[in-house]
Design brief:
By secondary structure, this protein is an alpha+beta fold. It folds into two domains: about 60 residues, no CATH class; about 100 residues, endopeptidase domain like (from Nostoc punctiforme) (endopeptidase fold (from Nostoc punctiforme)), CATH 3.90.1720.10. Helix content is about 45%, strand content about 20%. It has five helices and eight strands. α1 crosses α2. The protein starts with a helix and ends with a strand.
């Protein structure tokens, strides 16, 4: 009895949605749903539910990443104008450009090497940057990076430029000028 009820429900659902799901023609009300059609429906339904679940999880992960990045970027902004450039430094007491990036990601439990070039290749190179992505600069035609920082959106990045300066907010495009290539790297966590 229970099996007939499920089969009747599946037949009704399949008769309504079958043309949209599998391209099949709508069964006539007199035709019973055969077991192959029922199995096909269940497989397609499960696949659709799995896809929807995956999309939802990806959305939630992106929201969490965005929230964590916003928090970390706001903390990093407190060092703008305050933390001095220190060659080989890796803490808010003093850092160089890759040391700043290294510290930022260590606060997210991600270990990066203390090297602009290594950091530039430590994740996915992207064309459309998001806040929290690494922005690296290299001379045109070179594979070696010479400077980097953290992209915060709207063509701006936070970086530690050189000896005698403090952590700074700058325009990505202005910093790159005409003689540098810009590489954005996304680190997944």
């Amino acid at each position: 009895m229970k099996r007939l009820s499920l089969l009747a429900i599946a037949t009704l659902i399949l008769s309504i949605f079958a043309p949209n799901i599998s391209g099949a023609s709508e069964p006539s009300p007199q035709e019973p749903l055969d077991s192959n059609s029922f199995i096909e429906f269940l497989i397609l339904y499960k696949a659709e539910q799995t896809l929807l679940q995956q999309q939802y999880e990806e959305f939630e992960a992106a929201q969490l990443r965005s929230s964590q990045m916003t928090t970390r970027i706001n903390q990093l902004k407190q060092h703008v104008g305050n933390t001095w450039y220190v060659f080989s430094g890796t803490t808010p007491d003093g850092w160089d450009c890759s040391g700043l990036v290294m510290w930022f990601y260590s606060e997210l439990q991600i270990e990066l090497e203390h090297s602009v070039t290594a950091q530039m290749h430590s994740g996915e190179i992207v064309d459309e940057p998001m806040p929290g992505d690494i922005v690296a600069f290299k001379h045109n035609g070179s594979s070696v990076g010479y400077h980097n920082g953290l992209y915060i959106g709207n063509d701006l990045f936070i970086h530690s430029p050189r000896v005698g300066t403090r952590t700074k907010l700058s325009s990505v495009s202005e910093y790159a000028g005409k003689h540098s290539e810009i590489v954005f790297t996304r680190i997944d966590f």
